[in-house]
Specification:
By secondary structure, this protein is an alpha/beta fold. The chain folds into two domains: about 230 residues, Glycogen Phosphorylase B (Rossmann fold), CATH 3.40.50.2000; about 160 residues, 3-Layer(aba) Sandwich (Rossmann fold). It is about 45% helix and about 15% strand. Helix 11 links the parallel strand 9 and strand 10. The radius of gyration is 22 Å and the shape is globular.
Length: about 400
């Protein structure tokens, strides 16, 4: 097996792998580190640094973690509105990170620069395209476009601008990079609709579920019969989805199933989410040590996304334990499944309510869901092509002194 040296650049520390963007980054990092020499550069706050450095150092050659000031990032993002650049890249800019990466690329002969998410690409603008592999994961431009639909003026205008600017930047990166990856074929349509740049889909996976617990703990048992939504609850798409279900769908279900509860499980519930606990039948659980017990004891998982891009790991995790899922069309398409196979797809609040009621009254067995997940969302199987694709990237020499000097203006 040919071994190469890789610089892996991530906008969030890929540990612990407990949310979508971190799960995929960690699995890629773990896979690559088992075969190659990998240096990791990532942003992490102080708590994340102390918790994650040891675990990541065990698999990486070098680990470089820096904190990113939120206030400074927001100021840079605001100032970027006066320029022609996306505010996403401005938000994730750090002079210290730029210096670290510049020094590393001058000091080391990296064969591959692996950029996780487009926000980090400016840090390696000085590197030769033949070295560059970028995992967009999702089309962030498409996500901002969706944000604009549900935002009021002036934010709707700002979000539309970001969708346009970031979309241009994503296409520019896809054209420049030696290898471009996304999480689903649908993302290829967003970034490379004309198939000009050879963007490839690298599907996500899902970890094998732990054995089911013998009995639900008291805090779960007290919920009675419930449906569950799982996610980071200060993230706008999750906040919007939970609010949509609690306000527009749950009341329709409770007309015939008055005892049904809606459990919102996930860390950092925003004020908008906490407000939902005042509604009949809604329980905001917040952060929990383990999500699986809440999935095991639910009647169904719900994924009522109006803003959604890429694969929702929460759907995969539910299906992996055989839990029925009711979802809106966009996340269902990303999984590549239809109602007849393993989950129920609903287009309107009325359809969504009827689908949940159907699950409540029939309790369908979703054994096919487990088989579908095992067949299509196994991490080892899905990551296997990555090694072959990376080895297609030619080994190149380190940047020249002139290229390194030009780095400051490029970033």
């Amino acid at each position: 097996m040919v071994s190469v040296k890789i610089l892996f650049l991530a906008h969030r520390i890929p540990f612990p792998p407990d949310k979508g963007e971190k799960i995929r980054a960690y699995q890629e990092l773990r896979f690559l580190s088992s075969r190659h020499k990998v240096d990791l550069f990532a942003f992490a706050d102080q708590a994340e640094q102390s918790a994650g450095r040891a675990a990541l150092s065990a698999i990486c050659n070098e680990v470089h973690l820096l904190a990113l000031s939120r206030n400074a990032s927001r100021a840079r993002a605001a100032l970027s509105l006066l320029s022609g650049k996306p505010f996403t890249t401005a938000y994730f800019y750090s002079a210290r990170m730029a210096k670290l990466v510049r020094e590393a690329t001058a000091r080391n002969t990296y064969d591959v620069i692996f950029v996780y998410c487009s926000a980090m690409a400016p840090y390696v603008a000085h590197c030769r395209p033949a070295m560059l592999c970028i995992d967009f994961v999702d089309s962030d431009a498409s996500k901002w476009e969706q944000y604009a639909r549900y935002a009021a003026f002036p934010m709707s205008t700002i979000y539309k601008r970001e969708a346009r600017k970031l979309g241009e930047y994503e296409k520019e990166l896809a054209q420049r990079a030696r290898l471009s990856l996304v999480s689903t074929p649908l993302e290829i349509e967003a970034i490379d609709p004309d198939r000009k740049f050879g963007v490839r889909a690298l599907q996500n996976g899902v970890a094998k579920p732990a054995p089911p617990s013998a009995a639900p703990p008291p805090q779960i048992a007290s919920l009675g019969k419930y449906v569950v939504f799982v996610g980071q609850m200060d993230y706008l798409p999750n906040v919007d989805a939970a609010s949509f279900f609690a306000r527009d769908i749950l009341p329709k279900i409770r007309k015939s199933h008055a005892a049904l509860q809606f459990a919102i499980v996930g860390r950092n519930p925003s004020p908008r989410v906490l407000e939902l606990a005042k509604l009949p039948g809604v329980s905001v659980i917040g952060a929990v040590p383990e999500v699986q017990p809440y999935l095991e004891n639910a009647v169904a998982a719900v994924a009522p996304f109006r803003i959604c891009q890429g694969v929702q790991n929460k759907i995969l995790e539910a299906l992996a334990i055989g839990l029925p899922v009711v979802a809106t069309p966009r996340p269902a398409r990303a999984v590549g499944a239809t109602s007849s196979e393993l989950l129920f797809v609903a287009h309107t609040p009325e359809e969504f309510a009827r689908a949940v009621i159907r699950v409540l009254e029939t309790q369908p067995l979703q054994g096919s869901g487990r088989e579908f997940i095992r067949e299509h969302f196994d991490w080892e199987r899905n990551l296997e092509p990555l090694d072959r694709w990376l080895l297609e990237v030619p080994v190149v020499s380190r940047p020249t002194e002139e290229e390194t000097r030009n780095y400051v203006t490029a970033v």
